[in-house]
User: Fold this.
Amino acid sequence: MTWLVIGTDAVLGVFAVMFSVLWFRFRLRAFLAGAGVVLAYAVSEVVKLLVREDRPCRSKPSPAPCPEPGDWSFPSNHSVIAGASAMAIWALHRTFGWVAAVCALAAAASRVVVGVHYVHDVLAGLALGALVSWGIAALLAKRGRRAHDDAPTVVLSRLR
Assistant:
């Protein structure tokens, strides 16, 4: 079970490596995608304070150490970060996006297996993270289209 606990945090490292690699190609877009992950985390912290659901490890033993009281269960922060990262990476690079999606699902599942979250915590976390990150990606795409619409267009006749 300890490999699952370590693996959950290692997946977050995989996302950091993917963002670093994508940084060299996309610079500003990769930075803003990462900012979307931070925004998703902030939103999840607000939701946690509103919902205040106890963790399953408070009522039954779990293989992982149970976080301190007041560190609420819903939504799972690991899942929010995983969902937001996977969506952001997907928006930047489809191949990396598939890898990130599998990693996000694995990270979310491991939080349930080690007993620190309920299934609905991780599903809500994945959805919340992906939704916030998708919103940032949609804004970036809209901004990118607008920038191209303002650019002068040159039409060349076809050579025969």
Residues 2-150 form one domain. The radius of gyration is 19 Å. Residues 147-156 have pLDDT under 50 and may be disordered.
